[in-house]
Amino acid sequence: MKREEDKSIKGYKDLQGIREDGKVYALGGMGADTTPQALVRVYEAEKDQWQPMTSMPTPRYGATPFVRGNKIYMMGGRQGKMPVTALEAFDLEMKSWTRYPCIPSRRAFSCCATNERSFFSLGGLQQPGPHNFYSRPHFVSTMEEYDLDQGFWPQ
């Protein structure tokens, strides 16, 4: 039996993947023309296919996905050569997105660590803002903390 090719994620590049509760989620990425995407798909093994879910509020690639509780967070990323500072979470039960305060610094390809009260944005590619054309992107060792109880990024 020939397996039919699934077209729901075909043609996309740099999708961010994360596994939670026995399911695989694909988020963001870029189209064949490098346009940032807001897509969210979940792989259903029983049907052997990807199913669409509610799109992200901010299209992007190069973001950092992580899971905390019943939410998949997407932090930072890029739209073309421009940094994205958005922090958003997809509630797996409600099937909806929530926006949080933006990350203080403009970085893509960062990593994330969490504890009971905070999560941390670590390192990544620091990019200049839209009005700083003479600065070049460079990798940094920046660490920023988001306080979950207070709902902000302490300085």
Write the layout of secondary structure elements.
Elements: E1 16-20, E2 23-27, E3 40-44, E4 49-52, E5 64-68, E6 71-75, E7 78-79, E8 82-83, E9 87-91, E10 96-100, E11 107-108, E12 111-114, E13 118-126, E14 138-147
Antiparallel strand pairs: 1-2, 2-3, 3-4, 5-6, 6-9, 7-8, 9-10, 11-13, 12-13, 13-14
**Overall mean pLDDT:** 87
Highest-level CATH class:
Mainly Beta
Number of domains: 1
**Reading side by side through the largest sheet, how are the strands ordered?**
1-2-3-4
* Helix content bin: under 10%
Subcellular location: Cytoplasm; Midbody
Keywords: Cell cycle, Cell division, Cytoplasm, Kelch repeat, Repeat
InterPro entries: Kelch-typ_b-propeller (IPR015915), Kelch_1 (IPR006652), Kelch_domain_containing_8 (IPR051746)
Main location: cytoplasm
Walk me through what this model shows.
- The chain is mainly β and 155 residues long.
- The protein has a single domain, classed as Neuraminidase, CATH 2.120.10.80.
- It is built from no helices and 14 strands.
- The chain has strands at 16-20, 23-27, 40-44, 49-52, 64-68, 71-75, 78-79, 82-83, 87-91, 96-100, 107-108, 111-114, 118-126, 138-147.
- The protein is globular and about 50 Å long.
- The termini are far apart.
